[in-house]
Write a structure and sequence with these properties.
The chain is α+β, with helices and mostly antiparallel strands and 144 residues long. The protein folds into two domains: 1-69, no CATH class; 73-144, no CATH class. 38% of the residues lie in helices and 17% in strands. It has six helices and six strands. Strands 1, 2, 3, 4, 5 and 6 form a six-stranded mixed β-sheet that branches. The N and C termini lie far apart (41 Å). The structure holds zinc ion (ZN). Zinc ion binds next to loops.
């Protein structure tokens, strides 16, 4: 059973949950949110990203909501918390180009869990993530 803890930056209650596949831990807001992007399993202490509007209870990555997250508050986590919005709407809202939003969407829609995680954690830029996903998809298509 996942225990709650407090964000060391802002003190908000969070769960530290492991990604279902990668095992990488991430802070998730304790309070569910209809705009969240994560489906959690509190029994297992794990989470996964909901890539489509889902019937399950959604939770938000604390990277997206922490007022002190700074570098963590990436385009990607905001995008992941805005599933279902049009790219124009989203681009206007977060002040990036529509092309960047489309790249983030393409990466999040792919099966490349590791790249998605890196993008959501802000470790790599949307353009880099997009190029890597495209390269992997082409490599897979070529070997099929
Ligand atoms: Zn915080």
């Amino acid at each position: 059973m996942a225990k709650t803890s407090a964000c060391t930056s802002c003190g908000a209650p969070i769960y530290w949950l492991k990604h279902e596949k990668t095992g990488k831990r991430a802070p998730i807001d304790v309070a569910p949110s209809p705009n969240g992007s994560c489906l959690v399993n509190l029994e297992e202490g794990s989470y996964r990203i909901a890539f489509e509007r889902s019937s399950g209870t959604l939770y938000t990555s604390h990277f997206a909501t922490c007022p002190h997250a700074g570098q963590h508050r990436t385009i990607a986590s905001r995008e992941a918390n805005s599933l279902g919005r049009s790219s124009d709407e989203l681009a206007a809202r977060i002040g990036v180009s529509g092309a960047t939003v489309e790249r983030v969407r393409a990466v999040l829609a792919s099966d490349e869990e590791e790249i998605k995680e890196q993008l959501l954690a802000g470790d790599i830029a949307p353009y880099t993530a997009y190029k890597r996903v495209r390269w992997l998809q082409r490599a897979k298509a070529g070997s099929a």
